[in-house]
Amino acid sequence: MLNKKTIEDIKIDGKKVLVRCDFNVPMDDAGNITDDRRIQSALPTIEYIIKNNGKVILMSHLGRPKGEAKKEFSLEPVAKRLANLLNREVIFVDNDNVTGEDANKAVDDMEKGEVVLLQNTRFRKGEKKNAKEFAKELAELADVFVNDAFGTAHRAHASNVGVAEFLPSAIGYLIKKEIDVMGKAMSNPERPFMAILGGAKVSDKIDVIENLIEKVDTLLIGGGMMFTFLKAKGYEIGNSLIEDDKVNLAKELIDKANKKGVELLLPTDVVVAKEFKNDTEYKTVSIDNIPKDMMGLDIGKKTSDAFGDEILKGKTIIWNGPMGVFEMENFAKGTESVAKSMAKSEGTTIIGGGDSASAVDKVGLSDKMTHISTGGGASLEFFEGKVLPGIDAIDNK
Ligand code: AMP
């Protein structure tokens, strides 16, 4: 399996350990953190360094400040929440330059077991460009680098990839857990192995479908992208979301699944609506009865039940993308039903972050899943079989 050094493979005692976390937490307009799970997920690594007498220097991005310092993207609220969760002081270096004199001084003054948090790395233009100078400035603060930000592991930025060039490096517990669980599913799954894919567009999921067709026993398809598949099978889809230029590809994927003996399940009924809004006329119809002037916004009850039966047969189930427009109450039932079926499963259940993770959370079932990835985009690229640059950059064992 993974051949990368982990935090347990490096010397921590007395060392300045620079840790890239994913503290990109949602906040309300008043700057209050509305969901701190990403901070909580970073605790095992931080606590391990404290326990082993290291000096913890944390860095992260927050939101999209586009290379400029913007107060609403300051990590100060994260420092406060982290201090509460750790039950110890977190020294926040409130300097828009992220590195420099204030950061140097804060680090020079650190005792073993203390925690410093730098300002939002995306306040610097060099972050997203993976600029060498910025990476070097960050690296000069520390003795070793630990990457624990799975949510950004699919991006090559200065604070996760660039910095690894200048310091000995390892992955933290969160990244380790993410790739242990998802890596096992992809390389050596207990079978039947199934994938549930939804979300808006086929075009965003082509690579993941192509990679998964090679591995899974069953593929369940819902969401906006189901209509491109239904059209490929000759159904009239009314005003539903369609990518006309992907209909042929959908045909090819259906053929490929057939040849490989992969069961590809498409919905048999859908919830159709007059307009793309919650308060509009809607009804459930069979897929050969989609009215010309209506659009499909969710899978129907029969489909939810059939998907549910299938899910219960699975030993390993991965899910990425909602079954319908789950942000609107009237079109959230299919997504909720899949979440409930997964919660009932006794197999390994993996939620690939993003919208599916929010949907599971909304119905209060997060605790019932084996693993909910902290990275939507990163887990998708992982399911695509791609090498994630933020992990690739870390020293081998
Ligand atoms: P993605 O980011 O590709 O996983 O897509 C998630 C989005 O797909 C959500 O915002 C859903 O509202 C949207 N979506 C799901 N089903 C449909 C549908 N039938 N028509 C339009 N949008 C959909």
Short description:
The protein has 397 residues and is of the alpha/beta class. It has helices at residues 37-51, 76-86, 101-108, 125-128, 132-139, 173-187, 206-213, 226-232, 247-260, 301-313, 333-344, 354-362, 376-383, 389-392, and strands at residues 16-20, 55-59, 90-92, 115-117, 144-147, 169-171, 193-197, 218-221, 263-265, 269-273, 282-286, 295-299, 316-320, 348-351, 371-372. It folds into two domains: 7-177, Rossmann fold, CATH 3.40.50.1260; 189-383, 3-Layer(aba) Sandwich (Rossmann fold), CATH 3.40.50.
What is the element layout, followed by pairings?
Elements: E1 16-20, H1 37-51, E2 55-59, H2 76-86, E3 90-92, H3 101-108, E4 115-117, H4 125-128, H5 132-139, E5 144-147, E6 169-171, H6 173-187, E7 193-197, H7 206-213, E8 218-221, H8 226-232, H9 247-260, E9 263-265, E10 269-273, E11 282-286, E12 295-299, H10 301-313, E13 316-320, H11 333-344, E14 348-351, H12 354-362, E15 371-372, H13 376-383, H14 389-392
Parallel strand pairs: 1-2, 1-5, 2-4, 3-4, 5-6, 7-8, 7-13, 8-9, 13-14, 14-15
Antiparallel strand pairs: 10-11, 10-12
Helix pairs in contact: 1-2, 8-9, 10-11
Question: What descriptors fit this protein?
Answer:
15 strands; 2 domains; six-stranded parallel β-sheet; 14 helices; Rossmann fold; binds adenosine monophosphate; alpha/beta; 397 residues
